[in-house]
Amino acid sequence: MKKIIVLFCLMSISMQAKFIKATLTFENGTTKEGFAEMVEINDSKVKFRLTEKGDTEKILSEGLKKIAYIDSEGNITIAERLFIKTDKGEKGIKQTDKKYWLYVVYSKGIKLAVDIAVSTLRYNPSNGTSTGMGGGTILYMGKEKEDGVFFVFYLSDMMSVNVGMDKSVRKHCDLLFKDCPKFLAAVNAENFKKNTLINKLIELYETNDCNKPIKVEAPKKASPKKKK
To answer: Fewer CB within 10 A of the end CB, N or C, for the chain?
Structure first.
């Protein structure tokens, strides 16, 4: 299984030139190649250029399906516009009214997407206090062919142990993949670690044959009764 190193991949691209080689795919299936800035979750427009130093065009996010960014080493990072779902228990599933830009790190049966939250913490030396929010990775989970994902957990950079992470991961796996009991059993038996959570989910999904169709044997015909 190919390892997916999400943070390093996104960070390496973001540290490159402001406009990165990219292919835009529109909702109608057409594509446009050139250079684009990396999108953030709420961006309503994408800054795009046909050439790296050319004129900047602002393309509405609403008409786009996804963006494939290609770094200097040929690695591809996919940003996709997705609905965000929340399981409200007895109240059912709540879905956002609009789509948001998320980075899809794996989509083969199970879809795993992330948003990278940058730390906004600031220290005030006059009173010795800090304000703002720490950075982290926000994990979402869904199914490959669907355009919506569930918010699963906020993996904080400030905490070595993320309380409630295992419970939330197991809950959403059970919600989405009841048709793969071997995968669910493996998830329920695993003690996940923050830094390897995404790779471990991919490993468990791939090694438990979730993408293989279940063979259903045809019922055997009853033998005709012999006449006495």
So the answer is: C
d(CA 110, CA 82): 14
CA separation for the pair 107, 178 (Å, rounded)? 18
Q: Which amino acid is at 60?
A: L
Nearest Cα to 172, choosing from 154, 153, 195? 153
Q: Measure the CA–CA gap between 224 and 203, rounded to whole angstroms.
A: 49
Token readout for 101 is 């830009």
pLDDT at 184: 96
d(CA 217, CA 204): 26
What are the helix and strand counts (H, E) for the chain? 4, 13
Instruction: Report how far residue 195's alpha carbon sits from residue 104's, in angstroms, rounded to the nearest whole number.
Output: 17
Rounded CA-CA distance 176/192 in Å is: 19
pTM flag (> 0.90): no
The percentage of the chain sitting over the pLDDT mark of 90, rounded to a whole number, equals 58
**Overall average pLDDT of the 186-208 stretch:** 92
Q: For residue range 80-94, list pLDDT tens digits in order.
A: 999 999 988 888 899
Average pLDDT estimate for 137-148: 93
CA 11 – CA 123 distance, rounded (Å): 24
Q: Quickly state the pLDDT bin for 155 (edges 50, 70, 90).
A: confident
Largest CA distance in the chain: 103
Return the residue matching tokens 């940003």. 79
